Amino acid sequence: MTNIVVRRAGRHVDWPLILATLGLLTIGLITLVAAAASPLSDELPSAVARQALFIGVGLAGMAILAFVDPRVFERGAYVFYGVVLVLLVLVLLVGPSVNGSHRWLPLGPIRLQPSELAKIALVLATARWFSTRSREDGWGFKELMQPALLFLGPMALMTFLEPDLGTSLFLCFIFAGLSFVVGLRWRTMAVILLIGVIAAPMAYQFVLSDYQRKRVDVLFAPDEDPSGKGYQAIQGKWAIGSGQTWGKGWREGTQGRLRFLPEQHTDFIFSVYAEERGFVGSFALLLLYFGQMLLGLVVAWNARDRFGSLLAAGVVTILFCQVCINLGGVLGLLPITGVTLPFMSYGGSSVMTLLFSVGLLLSVSMRRVGSAG
């Protein structure tokens, strides 16, 4: 009986999605080896082993979640949201301060970053909320305020207080993406856009801290302080440009190897990759990301119910926003926020959360319309 169940499940496994994810993980590990190969650092090589361990745990979790019925996630969505919200509060109360921020909870030999789990929690909670409510004429601004205050507000506030402005904005983008999927009135979108345009300069002046304002300043004038606050942005673009068409080759990049590039194994790992693989390799990487997201949208389209469709769309929103925000910061199109590049940047909480998200996608895909599972 067990063999029959496994064979039936195997016929519905989304192998293209799995292969795209494994491809990104492989590219990420290879690039991380190059980023950690600097003769000027004794600490980075151990990051490769730790990342491999995190990936192993994430893949195991992905496989387990893939075989769980999405209705289980639907029933437990609000509970999981509450647990993650408690973890975010604990981070502020008992989490250690690292460079002035409280973002991690020590759990024995590892550190958990609840703000990563907050992305999944927000998707699950909002997907359940919208799945039980529909509006033929689209959602208005007033109707959106209730789920925004219930789900987005508390988590965005907790992450902002850490302080982690990047994740706070990320959560806002996730909520906006799901709201767009369920259907917004044109007037609502215009109001939201107008509020954003008005709020942006006010937030810059009265909400952002000094170091956050400096990151915005660097976006518009990185050359004003090339050896100070603009150094990271400039070095990242130099590394990308020096790769030219075909790149310098694996472990031959000078910007990363000689440590001219700060945060080369985390936020700026794309600069290391682009220097080694050039324009052609970078374009191929973006195609792989695009393919993974397109497969996720196919899962959302073919989901057997509204919750599964919104859950899959939410996961794709996470991937899309994270790629855009990271690359936008590296390329100098957006402020540097500390958001990692999916499946490539070093970071245990990040890579495991993303793999768990893919597990949710696979769960929906295995029980798509027309499947017997």
Question: Can you walk me through this structure?
Answer:
The protein is an all-alpha fold and 373 residues long. The protein has one domain. It is 70% helix and 2% strand. It has 14 helices and 2 strands, in the order H-H-H-H-E-E-H-H-H-H-H-H-H-H-H-H. Strands 1-2 form a two-stranded antiparallel sheet. A hairpin with a 2-residue loop joins strand 1 and strand 2. Helix 4 packs across helix 5. The longest helix has 33 residues. The protein is globular. The N terminus is likely disordered.
Features:
single chain; 373 residues; mainly alpha; globular
Short note summarizing the structure:
The protein is 70% helix and 2% strand. By secondary structure, the protein is mainly alpha-helical. Strand 1 and strand 2 (110-112) form a beta hairpin.
Structural class: mainly alpha
- The strand count comes to 2
Largest sheet: 2 strands, antiparallel
Radius of gyration: 21 Å
The outline comes out as globular
Mean pLDDT: 86
SSE pattern, N- to C-terminal? HHHHEEHHHHHHHHHH
Q: How many individual helices?
A: 14
Q: What share of residues are in beta strands?
A: under 5%
Largest sheet, spatial ordering of strands: 1-2
What's the end-to-end separation, in Å?
A: 15 Å
Q: Helical percent range? A: 55-70%
Number of self-contained structural domains: 1
Low-confidence stretches: 1-8
